[in-house]
Structures are given as C-alpha cells and as structure tokens.
Prior knowledge:
Blueprint: E1 3-7, E2 12-22, E3 25-29, E4 40-47, E5 53-65, E6 68-73, E7 85-92, E8 94-97, E9 123-126
Antiparallel strand pairs: 1-2, 2-3, 2-7, 3-6, 4-5, 4-7, 5-6, 8-9
Amino acid sequence: MPTAVENTADKKTSIGVITQVIGPVVDVEFPAGQLPEIYNALRIEDKDANGRMVSLVTEVQQLLGDNRVRSVAMDSSEGLVRGMKVINTGEQILVPVGQSTLGRILNVLGDPVDNAGPVNAQEHWPIHRVSPSLVDLATDITILDRY
Length: 147
C-alpha cells in the first residue's frame, strides 16, 4: 500500500507502489491526495524477484484516477514487478546545459554515454520547457553552439 509524504521547500515527494507493468509503461498507485504532476520523474530503486537491484526513472504521462498514474520508463523495465516502491521526486527530469555539454553525448536523463567522463555543468534544466517565441528566434545562419 502507498505510504509517506515528505514536503520540502519547493517540491512534494511521496512513495507509491507499482500496480502494473506492460513493457515500458508502468502504472503506480500513490496515497490519496499525493499524486505526482504530469512530467514528474518517478524513481524506482528496489530489488527484483531474483534479488538484483533495479534502478529506473519513469516519467508521469497520465493521471488514471483512483490515485494511480501511468508513467513511461526511460530505460529497460526488465525486473519490475507489482508492489515495488516508487518515489515521486517532485520535479521533472533535469539535464545539464551549458558549455560543458557541447560535443557530448547524453541520454534522456542527462547522463553521459560517450565515455568522456562526467559533465560538470553549472545548470540543469527540465526536458519539458516552453518553446521560445518567434521574435526570440534568430534568422541568420549560425553554428549551433549556444544553449
């Protein structure tokens, strides 16, 4: 059964449980009144049926009702089972931005996958943002080296 809630200055976290897994789609039930928002990152860190550690991030895509949400896994959902604990991080998936990311290959979670060491970025932005207005877009031809 879903448990606990923790309030911090800017975010509200809670703990739910997996109710259904269908491929990359993971349904999670949370305590009443503690549903995560759309696009919130959910972190699953638990042991599977064989005792191996499972660490996965999913993103909330839909509110299903009955205190349940539907989320999409950002990596393989192998090893997930009903009843595993899920932590609502209270924020969206954040990725590094800035000069240190130029020329790097990052996955959707902002982790480097190019074997070139860690990304030492000063800022992290959510992967879902409002697009710039047309007046803020450049019309001249330039090399894309800005963030």
